[in-house]
UniProtKB/TrEMBL annotation, chains A, B:
Stretches assigned to the HTH lacI-type domain: 7-63
CDD domains in UniProt: HTH_LacI (cd01392), PBP1_LacI_sugar_binding-like (cd06267)
Family matches, as Pfam families: LacI, Peripla_BP_3
PROSITE patterns on file: HTH_LACI_1 (PS00356), HTH_LACI_2 (PS50932)
Protein's recorded name: Transcriptional regulator, LacI family
Signal peptide coordinates: none
Organism listed in the record: Beutenbergia cavernae (strain ATCC BAA-8 / DSM 12333 / CCUG 43141 / JCM 11478 / NBRC 16432 / NCIMB 13614 / HKI 0122)
The keyword Acyltransferase is annotated on this UniProt entry: no
Length: 341, 341
DNA sequence: CTGTTAGCGCCTTCAG
DNA sequence: CTGAAGGCGCTAACAG
């Protein structure tokens, strides 16, 4: 099939026997002007006959405004991010905007690049999900990129760790982890291990720090050898638990800083021929919907990821507002994975 | 902070004391022309000083080609789709394209609308994941929308069920389900139930049909009362298994047409105070990565979703090619959920 | 190698 | 209520 050249609005206008301006007003109803019914009819028919479709790019250019928003995540395949993405997409759809999805693949440099890419596309707003990685350099570059986008009228919102002066939906990671620690303590557990995630990952850091500080206040601090770093993934959880296996006799519960890691940790326990929670309890963080049916049920901190995504988009679009930070608190969910033997 | 007006390429040109064209060539290197080093240097410096960023929309318009592709899924929060999305995004990124994500929310009408939306945005290619729903009307509308996009030079590829004349990565749903049936038969199971999904859902239909046909060939057809329709979700699986509970004594294994449904089905078994696989075996389809660690391990048909997403994008971008259909076969994975008691 | 000049497709004042 | 004309920011012939 030959690539026919697309019909343009002038083609439609000519076909309908009206001017370009009238055709434009008929098809995309101007805010102020109105078109006589019969003319509008003619235009619409002509457009249908020609199979005309407006060019969103040209419209964006003429109007000086696009109809899309950007979403930056580390990895869509991770249920944490895909749930957030669902929230952002739904909220965007509600206001007639399309979502451009970009993945950092856990590379902080790409995060900056993607913000710039999205800025180039003149996204109306950019939502950055996913914990900031990298050191101060990256944070500064990111701040600059964000500032550039905002200065020229684009909105931005962060999910997770806030950054100075930028609207954000912040998870109370340390508070949630602390609440989890207290709940486990209330349930009678006393000896804790932690699979802590990467040292340079802020979310991981806040979660493990909040957990350990709460323990300290309760007078049952986790021993240093019971706190192991790991990758921020299922496999990281598996490896972390494997490292803790020799100490299992000294532990009641191991806290992995994400559900995905906790699942990996549970697999490691099973592969060692042991049982959760009989030999050791396991707790996670996030309450990923897809994982709510695993057995034993995973004790965790529920985070309303979908709502967070939706709210972040709204924050990002509220251009006039002052930078605003909404803090979302998680809710401890005790399940069988930490039942006392 | 005031919304400063964005610097344009002419601002940069003026600042650098060169012509618009030179600035353009210096910044976005023209394929044919080249710019003297010192001039290019001046331009780049001016651009940096002004914090100039090219406007992707304007470039798209001038070049007559955008740098984005569209992806249509039912629901990104569903791990099936998020894994596909990861594949599409990675492949797009490799060739420097951005992905616009659109969700049908399981509404076939929206599917058509989204194709049109993406066409309006002049997406270089559109990947449609997710089984076609709805009847012949919708299929026809969709075919028309797709044809419109292709006629004007855009690529399209489907994932799942093919449509006549459209490139596709087709899952061999019925073949995979048949292989599963044979594998379960080989393992000694004889009495099967099926949680079949929605009647109008093609993927679900092919999977259950393939499964049942293979059983028939093996001489052990599933009784009609052991085949229950359901929603295409975790809750659908739960409800389906609940409906089968009264018949559990007559069944060795229940096949749910997706892993997510299988997980719901397993939860229903547990909630009834029974055990998988002792009281009944459960099998799914997809081999969702996030669910690979559940216990008992879920017997399923592995589908390389990520690769499928990547390949679909490549098919969609290969505009010159003949309509081509790639069939991907699943691989049966037997795990403990169907271990014989 | 550089500059000038048309558009790309559409919206939007501004006249009529 | 309609039409003509300018411009959005950039690229790509076309001259110089």
């Amino acid at each position: 099939m030959p690539v026919r050249t697309r019909p343009t609005l002038s083609d439609v206008a000519r076909e309908a026997g009206v001017s370009l301006a009238t055709a434009s007003r008929a098809i995309n109803g101007s805010p102020t002007r109105t078109v006589r019914a019969d003319l509008r009819e003619r235009v619409l028919e002509a457009a249908a006959r020609l199979e005309y479709t407006p060019d969103a790019n040209a419209q964006a250019m003429a109007r000086g405004q696009t109809t899309s928003v950007g979403l930056v995540v580390h990895d869509v395949a991770d249920p944490y991010f895909s749930t957030i993405a669902a929230g952002v997409t739904a909220a965007a759809d509600d206001v007639g905007l399309a979502v451009t999805l970009a993945e950092t693949r856990h590379d902080p440099r790409r995060e900056v690049d993607l913000v710039e890419l999205l800025h180039r596309q003149r996204a109306r707003a950019i939502v950055l999900a996913g914990g900031r990685l990298g050191g101060a350099d990256r944070a500064e570059e990111l701040t600059r990129a964000i500032a550039g986008h905002r200065r020229s009228g684009g909105g931005v919102a962060l999910i997770g760790q806030p950054l100075p002066e930028v609207p954000a939906v912040a998870l109370d990671n340390s508070g949630g982890a602390a609440a989890l620690a207290r709940a486990l303590h209330d349930a009678g557990h006393r000896r804790f291990g932690v699979i802590a995630g990467p040292a340079d990952h802020l979310t991981a850091r806040h979660r493990q720090a909040g957990f350990r500080e709460a323990l300290a206040e309760l007078g049952t601090a986790a021993a240093p050898e019971h706190v192991v770093p790991s990758e921020f993934s299922r496999d990281g959880g598996y490896a972390g638990m494997t490292a803790l296996l020799p100490h299992l006799g000294e532990l009641d519960v191991v806290f992995a800083v994400t559900d995905l890691m906790a699942v990996g940790a549970m697999a490691a326990v099973r592969d060692a021929g042991l049982t959760v929670p009989t030999d050791v309890g396991v707790a996670g963080f996030d309450d990923i919907p897809t994982l709510r049916d695993i057995t034993p049920g995973l004790t965790t901190v529920r985070v309303p990821l979908r709502e967070i995504g939706a709210q972040a988009l709204q924050l990002a679009l509220a251009l006039e507002q002052e930078p605003r930070v909404v803090v979302v608190r998680g809710e401890v969910v005790l399940r069988d994975s930490t039942a006392r033997p």
